[in-house]
Write a structure and sequence with these properties.
The protein is of the alpha+beta class. The chain is 25% helix and 34% strand.
Length: 263
């Protein structure tokens, strides 16, 4: 009799374990929703691709992303995409670890029908990922969304068609000392005038009239002037590359993506 009860107990344990394994994603999602700090809000206005206004005229800055500023390429499309998904709709707002930014805007992730809208903006190429205060639980998902966007070659992820796009290599990325070095690996000179280096946020360096000779290198320093013709100076910035992690995006004069590198 005792042996039979032991077998029944053993089978019961296996059955419960199987149910848990089968339904783990559901249980995990339920637990995640329970632990998250979320509110249901109504979107009254979309300001741009990463900012909207909810009831009581409260501005919300979307976490994890940075969309083009007004007037920049894809800024209008980013705003229209966000409007299409959220405007005049009730959405879920999930707060970040810091609830407000320095402008007193609410910081958060927007969810519609269970989908992370911030993440979709990156996946569609209307924003790059952006984590200035440090990486959170969503960081890896945003990097994967960006890589997926790169694979689809659309919008902000569209690869440069410039002849020199395959020539320029990121030779050195010394973020601790705020130094970036590019090399021209082709057998011909490359015109880099108007090319752009950008971090995950708003900091941007535009190349002046500049030709990078074949097999030569150019260094871009932050906060340090030089008379060397192959050393350029990123003016008016104490620092660009953050200690908590950042990404370098290099684009040609037509804003095609040449390369990107994260640390």
């Amino acid at each position: 009799m005792k042996s039979k009860k032991r077998k029944q107990l053993f089978l019961l344990i296996i059955l419960v374990s199987l149910l848990f394994i089968i339904n783990y994603p559901l249980l995990d999602n339920a637990l995640e929703r329970f632990l998250q700090d979320r509110e249901t809000v109504f979107v009254e206005r979309v300001i741009d691709g990463d900012t909207l206004v909810i009831e009581n005229k409260t501005s919300v800055r979307l976490l994890g992303i940075n969309s083009p500023e007004k007037g920049e390429i894809y800024s209008k499309e980013a705003q229209e995409f966000l409007e299409m998904i959220t405007l005049n709709k009730t959405v879920e707002l999930e707060f970040g670890k810091d609830k407000y930014d320095i402008y007193n805007r609410v910081l958060g992730y927007i969810f519609v029908n269970g989908k992370n809208v911030n993440l979709e903006l990156v996946d569609e190429g209307y924003a790059n990922f952006y984590f200035p205060s440090g990486r959170d639980v969503y960081y890896n998902k945003f990097v994967r969304a960006w890589e997926h966007c790169i694979g689809n070659n659309k919008n902000l992820c569209e690869k440069s068609k410039d002849t020199c796009a395959n020539c320029i290599e990121l030779k050195e990325f010394d973020y601790k000392n705020q130094i970036v070095v590019f090399s021209n690996n082709c057998s011909f000179d490359c015109e880099l005038s108007g090319w752009e280096i950008k971090d995950e946020g708003r900091k941007k360096f535009i190349f002046p009239e500049f030709v990078l000779g074949n097999k030569n290198e150019v260094k871009i320093n932050v906060g340090e002037e030089s008379d060397n013709e192959n050393v350029l100076f990123w003016k008016n910035e104490e620092y660009v590359w953050t200690k908590t992690g950042d990404t370098l995006f290099l684009r040609d004069e037509k804003k095609g993506l040449v390369l990107w590198e994260s640390y």
